[in-house]
Structures are given as C-alpha cells and as structure tokens.
Fold this protein.
Amino acid sequence: MSASQAKLGLTVLQWSLGIVILIEAIMFVLPGAAHDFARTHMPGFIRLVLGFGEILGCILLLIPKTTIRGAWLLFAVFLLAIVTHLLHGAYNVGNVVIYAAAALAIALGK
C-alpha cells in the first residue's frame, strides 16, 4: 500500500467516523433518548457528558486543523463510555471498542 492510499484510507475513516458518531451523538442528547437511558440506572448527566463530548470531538475531527485533537477527544470519550458500561454490568461494548480503535488510528495516523 502506498502512502497516498494510506492517507486516503485514513481520510475516509475520519469522515465516516465523524459523520456517523455526530448523528448518533445528536440523537443521544435529544430529550427522547433520556427515557431509554433511564433504564441504565445511571445519572442523566452521564448521557449529556458523553453525548456532548462526542459532538465536540466530531466537530473537531471534521475540521482539518483540529482533526488530531478531535480524534484524541473521541478516543477519550469512547474509553470513558466503555469503562462506564463495564462498571454498570453492560458488556455489549463491541461497537464502542471499534469506534475507539478508529479514533486511535486517526489520531496516530494523521
């Protein structure tokens, strides 16, 4: 694989992750998501911290000058989400692990 192919791959990953997580995060912070989140028995502010952290991370990720900062922020938010899930007995963190790996790849590769 050439360097230009690797760069293109990271750019596609960056935009895919940024857009998908931005959409999911917006839906997560909307009031309609509060009811579903309440079933986790976690305080509501955790939903807002994670959701707005993801939104900020995505915005930074999609701005060329702040891509690396956004990737690191998303990586940190995803790690926090994984730990929070595991501490509350929710072991279905596979998607979040993949998101964290993608954010890490972008942070290290850009």
